[in-house]
Design brief:
heterodimer; A: mainly beta; four-stranded antiparallel beta sheet
Chain lengths: ~110, ~110
Amino acid sequence: NAGVTQTPKFQVLKTGQSMTLQCAQDMNHNSMYWYRQDPGMGLRLIYYSASEGTTDKGEVPNGYNVSRLNKREFSLRLESAAPSQTSVYFCASRSTGGASGYTFGSGTRLTVV
Amino acid sequence: GQQLNQSPQSMFIQEGEDVSMNCTSSSIFNTWLWYKQEPGEGPVLLIALYKAGELTSNGRLTAQFGITRKDSFLNISASIPSDVGIYFCAGRPGQGGSEKLVFGKGTKLTVNP
């Protein structure tokens, strides 16, 4: 099925460990986004990529890096995980130029102990 | 940064009741979107609004783009148990041509059978 695919769905890390969250979309969308969702905080933008080869910081970028590997894939990396990064992470994509909303993946639930 | 104030934060209603929730902003938005998130899933787009005053329905859901371009509401008529979830408003700011969406913090809806 067309859409946004995130892996893994669940992950437990120890403080200081690193990991990469993967995201791929097959809708030929130009823009891709990484959000984190915490209780009572809604969705907060971490990083986004308006097009292949470009990335920009969002509202809460500290502690994260991203790579727009190609048009389909946009990964989020935690170099040294901290308990404050325990959250649910969502990837989303959008076709630039239209007034459409985002299509979201089903999320990665990350726990840092 | 721009913020959306979404209310109420949560609602507990009986099956069959109507529901109303809204979002307000201190600045103008060009697009208003309403999403629903079910447990363990990413947000799914319900309704998109593109013009001030626009009123759009999707089954039992009706949403309006406020005439001032600073607010939007979502109504759900004759609620059913499967309406349970978190409803998010989102908007695309009118200034600067930003392509990034701003999200409200969500309204958690519980429907008692």
